[in-house]
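Working notes for the structural subgroup meeting. M.R. asked for a predicted model of this chain before we commit to crystallization trials. I am recording the input and output together here so anyone reviewing the notebook later can reproduce the run.

Input as submitted:
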Amino acid sequence: ISFPVPESSSEFVLDLYLAHEINANISSFKTYQSKIEVKLAKVESIFWNMLEGNDTLATIKKPDTSDDSSKSKPKDWDKIVQNEKVDEEGDELNNFFKNLYAGASDETRKAMNKSFMESNGTVLSTNWSEVGKGNVETKPPDGMEFKKY
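Returned structure, recorded in token form:
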């Protein structure tokens, strides 16, 4: 790979000794202001364990047939939506909080968001008059301690 360096009379050259053969006719590149993107097309459909050098551990890629059926048949979106609804209905606690948030006033939602975020997920308050006064402390459950990473 070689190209002229902008605002200079020099040329950048990158010699790579690739582990496997590429198809230069299909390969491409794009230049951006801060980078160059190079896409190399493989000649063989194998997994490269390394880009450069002698790759003796290369393995043959098996074609992914799991998605082939969806390409030939139209999707049944009603069935997909129904499956999503079943997944949502399965988690009662999550549904409780979704319903609580959905049915809350703007002030209550603001209190829930503020208390949850400022307490690092340890407090969920619906009382804006209390939460709006200042920062919400992190209060881990009994027997646990909060560690900031």
